[in-house]
Design a protein that fits this description.
mainly alpha, two-stranded antiparallel sheet, 11 helices
């Protein structure tokens, strides 16, 4: 999708900020404000809390983890930061319907996807010096993002989230992103290190295994 992943990161943060609609399954335990979080640091706290919960409760089910994360998001821990950035609420509306549904249903996965998007964008800028669309930097970012999600929550979930991100795009842009997302996904499994992911992503770009758009066509990448 043509939304660059740094904007995508902001979009995901918006799910965690302010008032959003809650599905009926959670309506009985929700309030008008689903969560009061307004900075990336707040989200980092949530990630740490969820990771600690999983370490302390190795037998916890997926449902247990999701419920813990959801309750943490609605807790008073973040009540001291009541101000809400309107930009985040606007960016939430830019997400696809499938992304919104996934985010509300699987908040712990949302945190992993958000963290992967931020890392992918930062690593892309570190390597290329920019973060563009349709070129090698775009291909690298999508490979990194998909691979990082795979390393955090598995290949199947990576496929679900990255496909949801492209659900409302079309044409060569969609074809390119889905192609590169698949490359990233199949080149990482849960637990794959960041250094390994970066190396593999770079090699995929360098060898022309990835795809970019040039002259109105989908062509192999080239460095």
């Amino acid at each position: 999708m043509r939304k660059i992943l740094n904007i995508f990161c902001i979009s995901f943060l918006s799910i965690l900020v302010g008032t959003i609609a809650v599905t009926p399954a959670y309506a009985e335990s929700s309030s008008d404000n689903y969560v009061t979080i307004d900075t990336w640091e707040d989200v980092d706290v949530l990630i740490e809390m969820t990771d600690n919960f999983k370490l302390e409760n190795p037998d916890a089910s997926i449902e247990d983890i999701e419920n813990f994360t959801r309750e943490a998001m609605m807790s008073d821990i973040f009540a001291e930061r009541p101000e809400i950035a309107p930009l985040f609420l606007y960016q939430y509306n830019a997400l696809t319907k499938q992304e919104k549904a996934l985010a509300i249903a699987h908040p712990s996965q949302l945190l992993a996807v958000r963290d992967a998007a931020k890392t992918a964008t930062n690593e892309t800028i570190a390597l290329f010096g920019f973060n563009h669309a349709d070129d090698e930097s775009d291909a690298y970012r999508h490979i990194m993002w998909s691979a990082l999600i795979s390393s955090k929550i598995g290949q199947a979930n990576s496929n679900i989230w990255t496909t949801a991100h492209e659900s409302e795009s079309s044409g060569l842009a969609k074809e390119m992103d889905l192609y590169n997302n698949r490359l990233g996904r199949i080149n990482a499994i849960e637990g794959t290190s960041l250094s390994n992911i970066k190396y593999r992503a770079y090699q995929l770009i360098k060898t022309g295994s990835a795809r970019r758009i040039l002259g109105g066509k989908l062509v192999p990448t080239k460095l």
